[in-house]
Specification:
Four copies of one chain form a homotetramer. By secondary structure, chain A is α/β, with parallel strands linked by helices. Chain A has helices spanning 13-22, 34-47, 59-68, 84-87, 92-97, 114-122, 151-163, 175-182, 224-230, 239-249, 253-273, 295-303, 326-343; strands at 52-56, 75-80, 101-105, 133-140, 167-172, 197-201, 211-215, 279-280, 288-292, 309-312, 315-319. Chain A is built from 13 helices and eleven strands. In chain A, helix 1 (13-22) runs antiparallel to helix 10 and helix 12 (295-303) crosses helix 13.
Chain lengths: 347, 347, 347, 347
């Protein structure tokens, strides 16, 4: 009954099995093993285009390393104030880029309006020596608000970016949830929509510790392996990182896992929407729910053993995952219902 | 029959079992899980003193993060030219320290003579604004040459370091092999000998991807967790990192694994020492052997399917591991023997 | 007739004379010359307390080096969006601090409300590993809007800062103009109001290229000389940097120069305030004026040879300096008056 | 009677006059003034090719900024152990390059043998992810030993560099002394010999604080102005930096100044060579002399008021400059002669 985050979950059985299978006999290190060697072909197939792929163990590493090859140290990275790269990585992007500046912008329902980006870039001072130079726009898909950019929305932002010679990064910590939600191909919402580099998340959706940095713009990948190494992110026993990713994208595991998480979130959201006094803060399009509840109801839920984060006095976040149980959702809603009724004197 | 490195091995069964066990139910992320919570007590017990411990996934991360809290950006790190931090981490120490300078020194049998350090520090320009400021001496234990510092040798170096206000770092990627070789306690060759911070390796000795940064000088640890996070080295599902380390030090697994590797190396070394025309380059005190062989013998070994790295035209490195099979050692020696005899026209 | 900035001016005659005087015979380098040696005593007298002082040649260097000793690389620096450190130094603070994050806040009349800082810090996540850690608040005095913080205003902000263990930095590129405007002692609006480190500007007010980083909190200065050197900001012929600063604070030159600049700004502002259709954007309290004028009037002024920067379509910035001539101010106002009348069909 | 360094001197009268002349009326800042605008043409004429030029105030800034655009953060910079960039800049190159590694090599008479560079590069591990990647060779001209590379020597080193895709940097803090010594054109020993970027020194040879970073390989200059700005090295009143350089290269001032310094050094060297018990450590080819003298003679010279640095117990360094007086040289030699005779019981 832990709705704190999708990172409180363990590892998908298929991924655990892949780790065991990879542990058979010796293998050359640093990516020279067979699993690692075939990873790029598999991701290229998945994305319907030739891509360059680098596995790393954490989302912060994926994002920060990706950004580090997309901007000079004096560059500007446009992102939402609440984006993970700006708010939750303790300055990892600044560290890996050698001091680039993240420009925090204000979104709507967790999404960056293309017009906001355009207006900001119009005054950014490109070419003027006193100002950091526009380099990257970074989008989060699914967003920090649990919403999802449509391919058209990404395309529009990427268009603005291209007009100003910016590169487009997508933080896909919950990319699977977005793809499932959209019902589109992975290609449609990435390179076909103008994305240059994707942080393709797996950890939150069933892996132990694995993310893939996927380069659609392969020229940008040129120095990545040196930067990954000096960041301490090149595993010697790389097969155990690659095996997670291979299993993750095999047999649609990643989509199945995300579909379940999204389904549980939809159930939760539907139940919450009917509660008297409850208000969903954003459209629920992936596996995160932000809901306004009375403090009494929140307290009651905590008391009943449900775990979740409080965003504000009367707003909580609920995150579902690949292994969220339907009965836990039902139990949560039942308690919330009972105490909402009580709070309103209904019962 | 792969003697390339101890990182070509897989994962010890006990550690794989611990990973499976850790995958039972949800757990709070970022180190708030029960396994991570009890790790510090276990390491404190192991080292017979209260320590602060941070798990990370790679040795480069362990070293670079450790150094980053021991030197200012304008500091000097004294180490051997061939040390991993200087030669094999693509500049990770420079990156994490914000540009500290590694001062490469010349060793004897892979070890830094205390007198060399003393002579260097006497001319280092401490307090003079034009020069980087002496901050750290870093030792590798077991060394890159397969030798081992005795506690007295460490103590002597640490004494010089303390005379010049330097901190002492130990790169223990093969720390287990050194401890087994010395037959001493882990405490005796670390904090009791003046070491401030230890990179305690596990990956090369049976873990999947796990190292512990162990602070004996706990004041130095103050900012480590922020630096680990911004380096992208804080796992969300931290329990899977901690579980490897817990299993690694449980039931003396780390010592048993290292004892086997050292034993295999001793066997190999003994056999090689008797070969006509072969010369061991350094005393074999841990699990690495550097041996001079005729190019013909080297070629024959490669042809027979043995894998190992060539250090020079007529020098090869052989590394044994926790799971090196005795029959592979015997087979290697047999081929080497046969071709050495042939080369000398003995057969 | 150049009102673009106070940096379009040349050097005050007294400072030029000091440079010539300093050029008499040899002198030991890097600050061991007599002028540099006595600088700290003179600044201590000026500020009525013992201070540590480091001359540098540019304001960006002064600010970035000052910040670099006040925050760890994972720190947060709170400042206004339009502050020079955030908007006009091409990322120098990020570079010198090793990647600290500048948090842009919204001000009122160019000043940071203490309540805004307090509200921001209340949600900053101090002690939480995912977030950059609150380290510094930086104020600009006089502000980028041409206004001035009173000692009480500084004190209130510093109080909030101290409650959250932040250090207080003051960017005093136009500090002289602020002190003259306030009619207070330099002490009253700096250390007596809680400022830890001041970038004491001279270049904009008559020096060739000289700023002093003044530490009231002298413990913070400990590593500054190494950082200045590795930033390439330690002059070998330091006497020529120190001589500028010595002459600048001798005989109240700095205050006289600023008084003239402020007086010219007040004249301009008074004249502009009476123009039909003109609007001063902010109170004019130092030597900068932001005024809204019709585009026709702006065009006419440019056509008549007046130089100034356009902030927006109908807003211009005028900056006066130590050597702004009264007749230029009068000429500017005459042209503005004539064309404002024309624009309104008055004439 | 100060032979400590050429930076103990003041400013050449012609340069002081140029500073005064530049102080006439307002000028646009940051290099938009007329003096700065014409500088590139003048340097292009001087070097007989189109160059890109950036003035900065210090040699450390010139070197570190130059290197920062020639190497990635994971690059290797080959230089002599005693080179200024490696030994005397407190890590400025590491700072500005984002952590590149300086590889200290051993020279002969202060010069890097091409064969040493070639042998080092043969084992550098280009393309191997574990190693920093060869990026730059940096030569000092005149050298730290007071010797001078011939155009052929530079050409040979540059040839090795090009074979390995390295860029060639020349630290020309005493470039004028080298050119005068060689009697060649500035072009012959720079771009015609394969140099990509030159730190063209002026401070040590008569300027107040001015160096020019000269790009022969102009593509490398692309991001320099942003890096200079964020390093705090862009002067607002840039005309005063440019005016020094303009005067320095006008009317052969730079060559005349260096010719005098070299001439004085030759006089000193000739006199010292004849002293009983004295030994010149290196050929005296520019304006620095390293000489072995008995400690008694050294003590006597100090006692007589001569100032110079002691390199070792019985080795001193003497540096002559553009304004070294012939009588001081004679006086120095007279005292040295007298005490050398005494020491040997000759007198």
């Amino acid at each position: 009954m832990n709705f704190c985050s999708d990172n409180v979950t363990g590892v998908s059985p298929a991924i655990m099995a892949a780790l065991s299978a990879a542990n058979d006999g010796p293998a050359m290190p640093y990516g020279s093993d067979p699993v690692s060697q075939r990873l790029e072909a598999k991701f290229s197939e998945l994305f319907e285009t030739s891509v360059t792929v680098f596995p790393v163990a954490t989302g912060s590493a994926a994002n920060a390393l990706a950004l580090s090859v997309m901007t000079p140290p004096f560059g500007a990275v446009y992102c939402l104030t609440e984006s993970h790269i700006n708010a939750d990585e303790c300055g990892a992007p600044e560290f890996f880029t050698g001091g680039a500046k993240l420009i925090p912008l204000t979104g709507v329902d967790g999404k960056l309006p293309a017009a906001t980006l355009a207006a900001t870039l119009a005054r950014a001072g490109a070419g003027v020596v006193h100002h950091v130079q526009p380099a990257i726009v970074s989008l989060t898909q699914a967003t920090e608000a649990g919403t999802v950019y449509s391919p058209d929305e990404v395309l529009e932002i990427a268009g603005v970016a291209q007009d100003h010679d910016l590169k487009v990064h997508m933080d896909g910590a919950r990319f699977a949830n977005a793809v499932v939600s959209l019902g589109c191909t992975p290609a449609a919402v990435t390179w076909q929509a103008g994305v240059d580099v994707l942080s393709f998340g797996a950890t939150k959706n069933g892996a132990m510790a694995a993310e893939a940095v996927v380069f659609f713009n392969r020229d940008l990948a040129e120095t990545f392996h040196y930067r990954r190494k000096r960041g301490g992110h090149l595993w010697s026993k790389m097969r155990f990182l690659s095996a997670q990713l291979e299993a993750y994208i095999a047999d649609d595991l990643w989509l199945k896992n995300a579909a379940h998480a999204n389904h549980m979130a939809a159930k939760l959201a539907a139940g919450l929407a009917e509660l008297p006094g409850a208000n969903l803060c954003f459209p629920v399009e992936a596996n995160e729910i932000f809901v306004k509840l009375s403090p009494e109801v929140i307290a009651a839920l905590h008391q009943q053993g449900f775990q979740f984060y409080r965003w504000d006095n009367d707003i909580i976040r609920l995150v579902t995952a690949f292994n969220t149980r339907e009965e836990d959702v039902a139990a949560f809603l039942a308690v919330a219902q009972r105490h909402s009724d009580l709070a309103l004197g209904v019962g």
